[in-house]
Amino acid sequence: MKILKIITLCTLLGLIACDAPRNNPLDPDSATYSRQSEVLQIRRLSSPLTPLSGITVIAPELGLSAVSDHAGEVVFSHGRVNNYTIYTSHEQFFPMQVLINGGGMNAPILLNARPMIMDREIHSVYNNTNGSTEFFTGATISDPDGLTDIRAVTLTIPEYAYRDTFQIHDAVNGYFVSNQNITAIDASMTSGTLPELPFIITVYNQNGDSVTTDALHVTRVIDQDIFFTAPAPLSSLSGPIDFSWNAIQLDFPFTFELELYAIEDNNFKLVHNYTAIHQDSVHFKVREDAVLQQLTAVNNFARISILDNSGNRCYSIPLFFTYE
Fold this sequence. Notes:
Blueprint: H1 2-19, E1 35-44, E2 47-51, E3 56-59, E4 64-67, E5 73-79, E6 83-89, E7 97-101, E8 109-111, E9 116-127, E10 132-142, E11 150-157, E12 162-165, E13 167-170, E14 175-181, E15 200-205, E16 210-212, E17 228-230, E18 235-237, E19 241-245, E20 254-264, E21 267-277, E22 283-286, H2 289-292, E23 300-308, E24 313-315, E25 319-323
Parallel strand pairs: 1-8, 9-24, 18-25
Antiparallel strand pairs: 1-2, 1-5, 3-4, 3-6, 6-7, 9-10, 10-14, 11-12, 11-15, 13-14, 15-16, 17-19, 19-22, 20-21, 20-23, 23-24, 23-25
């Protein structure tokens, strides 16, 4: 009899428990359950009124995700919460992490466009005049928010405390350059060490976001003795000029480049440069009147250089001459 009473009592308690009101506002079966919704506006940082479509927005705490529509909006509907964190993702924009007010008003989420490093180059320049080696780095950078959004472009070498800031060379095309002697890296740096070093380009936006390239390497330094054999230095010349230089044998493809300069008012004026001269050549004749007439009676100089397929260059000692 006691056992029957206990079973009956437990059954009644179970029925009462099943019928008890549920007061958890986050429980969809609760009488007090209510939903919240937020309309999140995704905009461009450089133009806050411009909507951004196609941006993935994830709210991990709510188990929700969505992609912004043509109006740059995402709607999240969920149970009542005070706040939650969302994360944005798109290959053309830096990711954002934003705390959202649940059920309240939220400021537009402003995304910063990623600058793109379109082209990059690095090569060495060896000069026979003083035996120095320089390295030249160039990068073409595009930023959908405009070049004014770029705070700085830097070149660093992780193994050394070396950092240089690029200068803008062509604002129209976004071309930045850096040109330094290897002694700027380390006073004891030698030309043979340069090809071993990794160079990193980093582009910083105004708000501190940044993109970084993979390591760049100088392929070689052309430390080669090259010099003119004719005409003699400080010659007084007229008519066509036949420039000659020593024969060069190297284990990689290359060409020669001959440059002619006139010195006017202490300024070097490039008169003409002859490119892609075959690597087997040892002389080149300048015969065009349009070129020769630009040479001065006071001072001119010629310079021959070796150029490989990677842009590495080796300059001769200049040959000074006058021209009548």
